[in-house]
Amino acid sequence: MTKPQPALFTAPVVRRPNGGARPHGAVRRGIAVAITVAIAVVTACGAPPANPRPAAYQPRTRNITVTTVPLLVKEQIKLYPFLKPAFAKGGVLDGKEVYAFVPSTITAVAGDTLRLTFVNPEDDAHSFVLPDFAVPLPGGTTTMATYVTKAAGIYPITCAIASHLPMMAGQLVVLSASAMASDSAKPPLAQPTR
Predict the structure, then answer these.
(1) How far apart are CA 80 and CA 14, in angstroms?
(2) Burial status of residue 191 (CB atoms within 10 A of its CB: 0-12, 13-18, 19 or more)
(3) Distance separating alpha carbons of residues 37 and 12, to the nearest angstrom
(4) CA-based, 20 to 30 A from 128: which of 9, 38, 79, 115?
């Protein structure tokens, strides 16, 4: 035989003339509203229960185009007269030219494959150098290369041409795959395209 459980909520009752009891009208309406709200909350939260273990990040292939861009070069002296003293002996750009990689920052996740397309539209040679990867970029060419990211971190990108340093530089930002695991259902990181 089971013991009766104590009531959590006791509603006022109205005695019927025939001896039956029923909850007071206001209480019935309150119960109906509570049930309606509970149904609405359950319906609105219709998402499946949270997975206790986030899905593992699945490495992706990212297509990235990097263009070499001249910013301040000797060929511009006629266009920008202020460059003549800048490039002269003892000037702020003595022996240097200013180029850039566009984009200068590439973001990926550890394990991603980067399919890189390098566009060097000018006649000067460049290179794209990471600590464990180097690609020569001859003038007037498009060069393709593939790189698989490894450990998370921020890695410097440089051009190995001495007269282009330190200005022609960038960074590869590699995010941790474990940090991205819960976000694997989101669309891939936006990357510049051609």
Answers:
(1) 95
(2) middle
(3) 22
(4) 79
Examine the pLDDT at 21 and tell me if it is beyond 70. no
Residue 9 has pLDDT above 50, yes or no: no
- List C-alpha distances in Å: 190 to 64, 131, 187: 10, 24, 8
DSSP bridge partners of 118: 66, 143
What are the angstrom distances between the C-alpha of 20 and each of 47, 56, 76, 100?
A: 43, 61, 100, 88
Whole-model pTM?
A: 0.65
Say how far apart CA 187 and CA 58 lie, in whole Å. 12
Say which residue, 53 or 146, is predicted with more confidence: 146
Residue 55: per-residue pLDDT = 74
C-alpha distance from residue 157 to each of 49, 121, 131, 186, 187 (Å): 43, 19, 8, 28, 26
pLDDT reading at 56 higher than 60: yes
Q: What's the per-residue H, E or C state across the chain? A: CCCCCCCCCCCCEEECCCCCEEECHHHHHHHHHHHHHHHHHHHHCCCCCCCCCCCCCCCCEEEEEEEEEEEECHHHCCCCCCHHHHHCCCCCCCCCCEEEEECCEEEEECCCEEEEEEEECCCCCEEEEECCEEEEECCCEEEEEEEECCCCEEEEEECCCHHHCCCCEEEEEEECHHHHHHHCCCCCCCCCCC
